[in-house]
Fold this sequence. Notes:
Structural class: alpha/beta
Radius of gyration: 22 Å
Helix content: 25-40%
Number of strands: 14
Amino acid sequence: MEILKKINRYRNIQTKKIKLKLKLLFMNFCYRERDSTIAEYNNVCFFMHTQAIGDSIITSGLIERIRRSGRKVFIVGPEKIRFLFNSIIVVDGFYSFNKKKIPELIIELSKVDIDLVIDTFDFDHSVSYRLKTLFLLKPKKSIGFGHPKGTIFDVNIVNDNSDAHLSERMKKILKIIGLNDNSYGYSLSFLSDEFKVAHDYANAIKKTDKLVVFNPFGSHPARSLSMEQINKIIIYLNVLEGYKTVFFNLDCDFSCDYLNNVILNPFRNAGESFALASNADIIITVDTSMVHLASAFNIKQYCIYNNRLNNGTQNNNIMFGPNNDKAVQLTTNEYLQTEDGDDIHNFDISLLIDAINDDLNSLK
Length: 364
């Protein structure tokens, strides 16, 4: 039975590849003539069809630089990241992506006369939706990454270093569109009045203690700490004098009633939770969105990675790493070399505690 499942899975994968190749051939034949010169453009659309919060944070510096040059920026992305683009990352419009409503999406995008499409992601599982959107939209120019020969993107940037941090792509794009900067940084803002309660809450804690944010949950169970690991870390954090930890429990049933220095995150939405975390003195996390938030605000962080391979080939520890001098990056030690990576439940928590202790002792 297992052999039959593997055969069927292999057949399905190969069938999808063949269908995609045929689609590419059709698009390439029917699409307009490509031109790699990027000169005049005013309205830029980022294709972020299936991207997550962390990807958006890394892209924020590129978005800010384009808008600072006087251009407008529009985003196509999943509804779950809309909150980021309401006020945290400033853009001129957000369009929710639904794979069943691409024609309707094209109608809306056509109203803003897109000059340039930028797609920072690879030729991965979502590429057929992004290509279909591009094919139907037909912007004046487009930039993509790592596509095969014959792509309909005007500029196809070859990934000459698969282990480079994602921000390196942003620097390449800035150079291509004539906005090259000497440095690249993320651009997030929590100045909106909607975040005042979160800032006040954090500042009240910081009157007497340093603020620690502890986020043990990732987007996948294999990248989330177990309750046994969480309990060990919380017991350790609870005895740290002069530190108050806010535990991002993400609806996990947990009581802090018996703890003196650990409290549950009082905010239930991502925006306010991120605003709270932006005030932290220390962030401890397994989730890359919180990693990039800490990097954006130059916050001391301890982040745990599980050696997974992004898109089957790219070292996720580097590509989506903290990329910040104040980060202590810890990893699991199985090195399974898979897209899911190691089971983070096997991570030795003592490595984290020792790293924090070393830093705290150096401050004495």
